[in-house]
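Comment thread on ticket #2218

A.B. wrote:
> Attaching the input chain for the structure job we discussed in standup.
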Amino acid sequence: MSTTPGEPSGRTPGTAAGALLLCRARPESVGSAAHLLRERMLLTSAGAEWSVLVPEGRPWLDEAEPVDRVLTGWATALAVGAPWPVLALWWDGDHSGCTLASGFRRTVGYEWLANGTPVGEDEAMRTFAARLGLDPVLDMQSLEQLTEPDATADARTRMLGLLAVLTRAGVALPPGIVPGEPVGKLREAARVQPGAEQIEWPGWRAAVGAELDVVEGGSLGPWLRGPKARALAVAQLAAGLPLAVWGARRGSGGWTATGALLVIHGALGLAYDRLRTVD
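C.D. wrote:
> Ran it. Output below, let me know if you need it in another format.
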C-alpha cells in the first residue's frame, strides 16, 4: 500500500527506521540517476543485473519524515525515464513494506504491521510480479503466501520471504545488507563491498550532464526530438513544478526530488538539440 501526495502516513519514525533501494540495473547505470536525489547513499552490486542503494536516512532520522513516504518519492524519482524498475524496501518500529516504481506507471506497494499482519491489497502482488517478470505460477504462489495470515511470521520475516522470491529474479544482496538492520550497520556492510560508490550531490552542472546521459539511455530515448518530445517535455514540466513545490512546502525530500527530476527531464527535453549542439 503506497503513500500518495496529500495522504497522511500516520507513522512515527524512530531510530529503528531504515530502507534499501533495489534497482534492476548495474551500478554504473544507477549512479548517475542516484546522484540527482541529493542524498548521501552507498551504491553497490546486488546481483548480476541488480544494484542496491543504502541511504544515510537523514530525511526520516533528522526531519521526522515517514520513511515510507520518503522511499516512495525516491523510487519514483529514480524510475522516471529509466529503462529499469526500482524496488524500495522500508521499515520502522510499526510497519515494513515495499514499493515498486517503473517509468511513469503508478507505483505499487505492499505493507505489513510489525507483527506480520498483511495490510495491503492482493492485486498489488499480482501487479508486482507482472512488472518484475516473475513466474506467474511458482513465484506468484510464494508472493500470495506473504499476503495470508501467519502467526509465526513478523514483518522482518515477511521481508525476507519477499527477498527469497526476488533471488529467483537475480537479486543477491551482499552479506550484512539485510532488511531490518540498523542504518549504520547496513552502510558499513555496503562500504566494504568491492567497487562500492559513495553517492553525493555533484552540483547542478554535473547533475544536468548526468541526467542527460540517463535520459538518452532510458525509456525516453525515442522521444527526444520532434513534436512528441516537446509535448512530453511540457507535460513533465507541468507535473514536476507543482509536485516540487508541494514537497518543499511540506518538507518532503522524496517528493521534492521527484518533482525536481520531472522538471529536469522536461527542461532537457525542450533544450536537448541545443545542448547536444553545444557539446
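A.B. wrote:
> Thanks. Noting for the ticket: The longest strand covers residues 95-101.
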